Amino acid sequence: MDLPGRTRAVDPKTITLQASAKALCAFAATLEPPLAYVAHSQGGAVVNHALGVCPELAVDAIVYVAAVAPLDGEKPFARLNKADETHYFEAIAYEEASGWMHIKDPQALVQHFSHKPSPRVTQGLLRGAVDEPAVIGEGKVSLNTQRFADIRQYYVYTRFDKIVSLTSQRAIAKQLTLRDTAMLETGHVPMFSQPQALADVIATFLSASQ
């Protein structure tokens, strides 16, 4: 699904972590249970917060793909390191007046979000990347710790990631109760650079017995 805020036709200051989680809950409620979430990057924060917003939904598994996974009371990007932030802000600028995280340098975006990008990966990134609301990063996750522990959790590492670096990914994963992990030899966007390998890993995780 597309989370709210992927168009400039909204007020970005209204696209909070809470608003994004509610949108995810509304979409997930239309699906046949049990649910499995696959969360990439800041999507991990939205998924975790949604567990507190709509606890009535039966969630069987979460696959984190180079994702943040803040626990109860944490902000989305609390466990990222300084190098991640530096790489991100070489491509993205915070527009304080508007509330958007604006793509200021598309070439830096390609350089830091991917690893040895092919023309296909570059085109996909530049076509799919959009300005995003900044306020979502200021939210705090509300998460039922016991319920979270009962959900099967998996993590897909991306070895050459500069946005959520492997060092940060390992620090994030250390706080989770993981059933299994996998390593992809990609940058931050394996869905562009190695889509089949990513799909195979996700399918393997979700077909595993409980």
* Rounded radius of gyration (Å): 16 Å
Shape: globular
- DSSP helix fraction: 25-40%
The CATH homologous superfamily name of the domain at 12-81 and 135-207 equals Alpha/Beta hydrolase fold, catalytic domain
Identify the CATH architecture of the domain at 12-81 and 135-207.
3-Layer(aba) Sandwich
Relative strand content: 15-25%
What's the helix count?
9
Strand segment count: 7
Q: What's the pLDDT, averaged over the residues? A: 95
Spatially, the strands of the biggest sheet line up as: 1-2-6-7
Biggest sheet layout = 4 strands, parallel
Summary, kept brief:
The chain has 210 residues and is α/β, with parallel strands linked by helices. It has helices at 17-28, 43-53, 82-91, 106-113, 119-128, 145-149, 166-174, 190-193, 195-207; strands at residues 35-40, 59-65, 92-95, 100-103, 132-133, 152-158, 178-184. It is globular, with a radius of gyration of 16 Å.
Please give a handful of descriptors for the protein shown:
4-stranded parallel beta sheet, 18% strand, single chain, 210 residues, Rossmann fold, 9 helices
Describe this structure in words.
This protein is α/β, with parallel strands linked by helices and 210 residues long. The chain has a domain of 143 residues: Rossmann fold, CATH 3.40.50. Helix content is 39%, strand content 18%. The protein is built from nine helices and seven strands. It has a four-stranded parallel β-sheet, sandwiched between helices. The chain has a three-stranded antiparallel β-sheet with strand order 3-4-5. Helix 3 packs antiparallel against helix 4. The longest helix is centred in the C-terminal third of the chain and has 13 residues. The chain is globular, with a radius of gyration of 16 Å. The chain starts with 16 loop residues before the first helix and ends with a helix. 38% of the residues are buried.
